[in-house]
Write a structure and sequence with these properties.
Length: 137
């Protein structure tokens, strides 16, 4: 038995259930969590978490907001919320777009690229593909 077979990795994202989400016309949908393993990313921020922080992250993910709204609570808000459960101290990363505005993945990416790393944090600004989810137990 390899130690790697005991490691669980979950890579997930927060999405609108509907595909036709647009500013002004249709900004809201039922929210769902989706598999993100293997998806491309341009920057990432990582930190090791304590068991209690992991439990807080899991609780937040399990009890996720059930409404996806472009302006009020979107994928970036979800990522910031879970990252802050890990102690990252991410700020609100808002931007505006025609017909609205809210948390924005590009603004979060700039924040991650420009931030002064705290002890224990690592950053990847090269990008790549997210690790695949793996359930080893």
């Amino acid at each position: 038995t390899s130690i790697n077979s005991l490691i669980n990795t979950s890579v997930l994202g927060f999405y609108p259930e509907e595909d036709n989400i647009y500013p002004v016309f249709n900004e809201e949908s039922v929210a769902v969590l989706g598999e993100d393993g293997g998806d491309p990313y341009s920057t990432s921020l990582s930190i090791n978490v304590t068991p209690s922080q992991l439990q807080q992250i899991l609780n937040a993910a399990i009890n996720f907001e059930n409404t996806y709204h472009l302006d009020d609570y979107n994928c970036t808000d979800f990522a910031i919320e879970l990252g802050n459960q890990a102690g990252l101290g991410l700020p609100d990363c808002s931007a505006s777009w025609p017909g609205g505005g809210g948390s924005n993945p590009g603004t979060l990416g700039v924040e991650i690229r420009d931030r002064t790393l705290q002890p224990g944090e690592t950053r990847d600004i090269i990008g790549g593909l997210a690790p695949e989810s793996h359930k080893g137990c």
